[in-house]
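Record format v2
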Amino acid sequence: DGGITQSPKYLFRKEGQNVTLSCEQNLNHDAMYWYRQDPGQGLRLIYYSQIVNDFQKGDIAEGYSVSREKKESFPLTVTSAQKNPTAFYLCASRERLAGQETQYFGPGTRLLVL
Amino acid sequence: EDQVTQSPEALRLQEGESSSLNCSYTVSGLRGLFWYRQDPGKGPEFLFTLYSAGEEKEKERLKATLTKKESFLHITAPKPEDSATYLCAVQTSYDKVIFGPGTSLSVIP
């Protein structure tokens, strides 16, 4: 089955701790994205990567870091500098087919602060 | 400033009661408009992409339409399993994707 997987489903962070959210895709998509979703707000872009070993900051990158060492994987680290990390985090990859582009999403990781 | 808004914020329908959700946008050039369905605690599920004014797409009880300023998601004779949050997103001419806040739909049996 092709798709996007995210783990863990729930993650708890202690004060001052860095945590890493996993995102893997086997769709052979070049571009991958990380979004943050808060109640009543649209999805906000944290980071995106168009190709391996390259990534760009989105609208709310402060307090987050990413890497893209493999095409299939795009992990997100929430650092201690992110003061309000409680949110639902969504990873997506983008399909380009016949000039049309579509983002497909993983199941999400809910991050909670202890 | 590029912006995507959705209305209403929440909608309650009786089973079989047709209605429409609205997505309005002000962006510097539209490359595509996307509709997604999101169930609680899950990732958004892709429904449709629309590219030009006048375009329509259908899937089961859902039909999406696009004008120069807005898109509608029409739900015909909804069932309780159509209850979800419906997200609209716009891809701008400079390749940025902007999401609206969503409409929470509840269909009551």
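The interface with chain B takes residues 4, 6, 35, 40-45, 88, 90, 100-108, 110 of chain A (CB under 8 Å).
The radius of gyration of chain A is 14 Å.
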